[in-house]
Amino acid sequence: MNEPDLSDAPPVTELSKPQRRVFGVLLEKAFTTPEYYPLTLKAIVSGCNQKSNRDPVTHYSEDDVLEALDQLRELGLAAVVHTESGRTERFRHYARKRFDFSEPQLAIMTELFLRGRQTLGELRTRASRMVSIGDLDQLRAELAALKQGSYIQASGDLERRGVEVDHNLYPPEEGRSIGGGGTGEPAEAPSRSAVAGGGVSLPHPPPGSVPAPSEESRTLSALHQATSRLESENEELRGQISALRDKVEQMCDVIEQLRKELGG
Question: H helices of the chain, where?
């Protein structure tokens, strides 16, 4: 198959719900089941509608998926691959030609296309099904690069506990901007001279007038750090539990599919 020249293709700035789901399935299956990739139309439909690792669960028909595939092909994000027999069309993605993503970044975007908004712990655990992401620090570094390219949005600073992230390729009509305007930047603190109702500057304390931290404040600081560590670990555990639940649901989908094929 002659691969198309996509060097002059316009940037991808938004994707519809069906486009995101179909594109996400092509990406996910290329990572997780390369022996069955490129995918047949039936495999893509099944992947779109599976109950595991999808939010929301969909009920797309073959016509729905074909329409989304045609649109993805126009965007240079997908292509048809013909088998040697020529009887069965298969489909593949062109994400690596259209985006300058690292492999972890591609796995992160795949998960966001398939599930939408997630905490860092959930996202790291799920994306690690496809590409190893060692810890939250590595995840934050990858997310920071994606955020700089406006591919993701965040509910706050990426270092903040409980922050959630989502992709940033929603069409405007979906209205899916998340808190913080998607920038994750904290609001600028008011200046000392911005006294309510007037322009009187507050006096600066003289040097040496600030007392040294007391034993009580040091204890509170240590407790705060310990609490932060526990909250981070709890976030990781929630992500692992979600991933285990996804695997169980995926196994149920496989069993159900086998049952149907065997005529049970």
Answer: 17-32, 41-49, 62-74, 95-98, 103-115, 120-127, 136-148, 215-261
